[in-house]
Design brief:
The chain is an all-alpha fold. It is built from 16 helices and no strands. Residues 2-10 and 391-401 have low confidence and may be disordered. Helix 11 packs antiparallel against helix 12 (272-298). The protein has one domain (14-384). 73% of the residues lie in helices and 0% in strands. Pfam families: DUF418. The chain crosses the membrane at residues 18-36, 56-78, 98-115, 121-139, 146-168, 203-224, 245-265, 271-298, 318-337, 343-362. This is DUF418 domain-containing protein. InterPro entries: Bact_Transport_Assoc, DUF418. It comes from Streptomyces levis.
């Protein structure tokens, strides 16, 4: 998530950090819903949802689910090109550094999944990121074609399976017993929380395989974009950004609406898997639209304000990602308030927005005194196999390009 080969105040791209900081919002909104609702965690509609809660979960499903992990993965691939340049400039081994970094991500992800949230992404990045190491010399055009084929075939297969499921017209039974057991475990004690997470660990590892096509495709697109320096100042013109944003909204929004209608209503449950397929196939378009709209804002008269808002959070992305899980799990489980299954979707959404606002403020305050966050420092130490040099804290909250 951070660039472990670089001092915190040198050779950073504000656009990369701003996009990463913005993506944290979508990640938090989606993850907090699953951390606080057994129905969301199991993939079923909450039968007790109020109209306000139904609208909230519908909007989260349409606008955030399956979109922001793709943006995060794209930025991971882009950052890999920066890390490669850094290692080569310093005379270090790209392979050795990245292998140590991948191991660090796997270890952090394992701890995250066991102690906090089982829907971890770090293990997926640590394991699947090895493909970037293998493909680091691939031509940008080849990387784009490979990503399109990989994700396209995956999406078409999901749509085909969803169409078959919708034609069968069989409803999946609601796992009431599993939901009741999860509620008891997460409201029980710290020990039952960890035990429940350990029981779910095989599903976490299986999720890595299910996410692999989307993550790898986004990695490859990020790799291609990094090789072309598209997020460097002047990398993409405003006209191209506007065209891409318009096309992304035109393709992505209808797919997102159908996905939400199938997952949360008014369509019947038998349309759920087809909705997942359509939502998956069109999610990259909406992710690209989000990214382009933010890049347009960065290149507008409000650009400095947008950078000050999002860049600090993006520079502390790993710390903020882990911190989100810590805060929400303290609200949800026996670690703190034991509100798992007790809050409606609207309240959960408000909580997520409040946590994100707090992280934006704390990230800015932190970077006024320190060069990088605690989790970033640890990952950098693992990557470099030694104590990182002291980074100079920049005077302004946004890093220099």
């Amino acid at each position: 998530m951070d660039d472990p080969g670089e001092p915190a105040d040198r050779r950073r791209l504000p656009a990369v950090d701003a996009l990463r900081g913005f993506a944290l919002l979508g990640i938090l909104v989606v993850n907090s819903a699953q951390m606080l609702s057994p129905w969301e965690a199991e993939g079923f509609r909450d039968p007790g949802a109020t109209p306000v809660d139904h609208v909230a979960v519908w909007l989260v499903t349409a606008l955030a689910s399956s979109k922001f992990y793709l943006l995060f993965s794209f930025l991971f691939g882009y950052s890999f090109t920066l890390q490669t340049v850094s290692a080569e400039r310093d005379g270090g081994s790209v392979t050795a550094r990245f292998l140590r970094r991948s191991l660090g991500l796997v270890l952090l992800g394992l701890a995250h999944a066991v102690l906090l949230y089982t829907g971890d992404i770090l293990m997926a990045y640590g394991l699947l990121g090895l493909v970037l190491l293998w493909a680091r010399r691939i031509a940008p055009a080849t990387a784009v074609k490979a990503a399109a084929w990989l994700y396209g075939v995956f999406g078409v297969v999901l749509v085909a399976l969803g169409a078959l499921t919708a034609a069968v017209d069989e409803e999946e039974p609601v796992p009431h017993r599993a939901i009741a057991e999860a509620v008891a475990a997460y409201r029980g004690t710290a020990g039952t929380v960890v035990r429940e997470n350990l029981d779910r660990l095989p599903l976490t590892l299986a999720a890595v395989l299910l996410m692999a096509p989307g993550v790898l495709a986004a990695f490859l697109l990020g790799l291609a974009a990094g090789k072309r320096r598209l997020l460097a100042p002047g990398g993409v013109g405003r006209a191209r950004l506007r065209r891409t944003a318009a096309a992304g909204l035109a393709v992505g929004l209808p797919g997102a609406v159908f996905f939400a209608c199938a997952a949360q209503g008014p369509l019947e449950d038998r349309w759920h898997l087809l909705g997942v397929g359509v939502g998956t196939l069109t999610a990259p378009a909406l992710s690209a639209a989000y990214a382009c709209l933010l890049l347009l804002l960065l290149d507008s008269p409000r650009g400095d304000r947008v950078r000050r808002l999002f860049v600090p959070a993006g520079r502390l992305a790993l710390t903020n990602y882990l911190g989100q899980s810590l805060v929400v799990m303290c609200v949800a489980t026996a670690y703190g308030l034991s509100l798992y299954g007790r809050l409606g979707a609207a309240a959960v959404l408000l909580l997520a927005l409040a946590v994100y606002a707090l992280q934006l403020a704390l990230s800015t305050a932190w970077l006024r005194r320190f060069g990088h966050g605690p989790a970033e420092w640890l990952l950098r130490a693992l990557t470099l196999a030694g104590r990182p040099g002291r980074a100079r804290a920049p005077r302004a909250p946004e890093p220099a390009s």
